[in-house]
Amino acid sequence: MSNLQLTAEGKLKHFLTIEGLSQSLLTEILDTAESFVNPTDQQIKKVPLLRGKTIVNLFFENSTRTRTTFELAAKRLSADVLSMSISTSSTSKGESLLDTIRNLEAMYVDMFVVRHGLSGAAHFIAQQTANHISVINAGDGQHAHPTQAMLDMFTIRQVKKDFSKLRVAIIGDILHSRVARSQILALNTLGAAEVRVIAPKTLLPAHVQTLGVSVCHNLNEGLQDIDVIIMLRLQKERMTSALLPSESEYFKCFGLTESKLKIAKPDAIVMHPGPINRGVEIDSKVADGPQSVILQQVSNGIAVRMAIMSMAMQPQGAI
Amino acid sequence: MKRIHIKNGRIIDPANDVDSIGSVYVADGKIVAVNTELDGFQADEVIDAQDKIVCPGFVDLSTRLREPGQSRKATFQSETLAAASAGITSLCLQPDTKPVIDTPAVAELIKELAEKANYPQIYPIAALTQKLEGNELSSMLSLKQAGCIAVGNASKPISNLLILRRAMEYAASHDLLLMFRPNDYWLGNKGCAHEGEIATRYGLPSIPDAAESIALGQCLELAELTGCRVHFGQLSCKRSVIKIHQANKYGLKVTADVAIHQLHLTENDMIPFDSAYHVLPPLRTEADKQYLRQGLAGETITCICSDHQPHDVDAKLGAFPETEPGISSLETLLPLMLKLVAQHAITLHQGIAAITQNPAAILGLPAGALTVGYPADICVFDAEMSWQINQDNWKSKGVNTPFWGETMKGRVTETLQAGRVIYRLAVGVDKS
Predict the structure, then answer these.
(1) Does residue A158 share a domain with residue A120?
(2) Cβ–Cβ below 8 Å for B206 and A140
(3) What is the ipTM of this complex?
(4) B318–A144: do the CB atoms touch at under 8 Å?
């Protein structure tokens, strides 16, 4: 599976998961992203790296933020971009995933950016698609969201510089979170001192410790010595499927408030992949407070996605 | 009907405690002598089984042949040929056909299809509840009279235990065997992989082993309450083996089988998102596999089934959770059984008994044994012959097997069903 996304020379061909990628490759992604940010005004430069290339955003699941930043990233790379929300078009007519892909392939595209509700969908597309096409996973089921993880790593590195001393807490619905799975892999690959997950048992996968994390069910205990706090979005439907009693009880136990934040290290940063549920997993004062880097994450999303898209196109001779 | 003399083979017939080099004589579709030389026997055909094993034809407790209703996936014609080439001479058909086997008409249709395929020993399992919906009882007695050998609910759960109780009482009244695959619908949570390390890492909806063992425990309690004969099918985990062992020790007469792939594969063998490994119950842990093997060696589990589920290519093309579960497995039954023997998990006698004598006894069939007077269902195989699983050698229409491309040892050379040679390995085939 790691081979699927790398060329024989070890270069990135697809970007499907963090699993199987080396520390040096992840660092190369972060460094490349750095090069797209203008050091004087922090603006992202427009570059001609993917001129003449066609990128199709295939979103089988709704998304505003991820799709927008992918679109912007593609445009800054001078590529032609087409965004499709598939849930409302072909699949409702009974077309299979494979047929959708085949049809688009026939229109000479160079890259698919895929978001899909089922784990493994991006792998499936990468396996099935024509050899010259790169596939970027923009989130598949509960499996992986590797570009989100990389923009989070970029943000952490901007503020904290070095991963080796960092203790990172990921708080909330780990069970259903593709973001968390990718973040854990990335943090461990980059050598973080500790990755700690904090959640009730109902929101943790059965064998979560095998992912290389320490586990805590209590926020007050779990926030001690923490340098980076990553909050996860809590979906409303978790209440109706008997995973949690109520939003208010969840907020009481696991919601990040100013007073809870004080338990962590004084220079701890607060992150959230968005969209935020204010008053459910995070208090507005924290989300908008001085320790929050949530909007910085969003801006970084463009540079990091530019880096990944341009690197994945490299083996095909784009650069 | 041909008179056949099978000579020089190593006859292994666990039911009659036979293991020796000798002859088997067949006339009028029946076995007329085993191991005693018949001097005046005029054979129309002599099969030289030198260096081969001669044993009863195999009895498979759980298969899907996809007809009626899904001939796109497989047909009686294709799958009975595959079964014959695998040494299988009797097989049970799960009731989840389309339409479901819940009326005598469907059972009759299956009998007709079986006759047409020239493979009459197909035994339909009747649906325990109408449309397998778990709400109302099927006409079990009429279904039995139409040729159904047992009742079962295939992979469909019966959530309401009162209905399961009533169904078991009714089945017991007509001395029908219940073939039950334990699976709690709610705990299963629409999962597609074992709730373990792999599902955690790849974010796959998962099924805990307790989904099976809890449903099994409930059915054991009801077996005692209702007096219904129960056979548990396709067990996949340690907790189930322990529960069956305890029940037997306690004196409850229940039996169990395991699908052959569960004895060889675990979640760790899965190639991530490769739908060939998508099977239900899911592939579990190394500890579960070892317990299943021990259960077989200790005869807590007495049968091995193929749990054959052929699929068309499209059914396996997609993101892992949306692909259809199941493995096409008739043709790997014997080689994988022999692999268990080679790995010293079980003895050859246990392995052969698990696919002949034991399942036949559970079904109450005059099969699975080379008993004089029984229909001559016989399998002759070369335990040392290697063959590759590829398009040239494969008979089933379903190529959905995680073993595709592998080279396996153990190949059937002749299969006799009621005295007819229904399969013979073509001469000059690639033996490499």
Answers:
(1) no
(2) no
(3) 0.91
(4) no
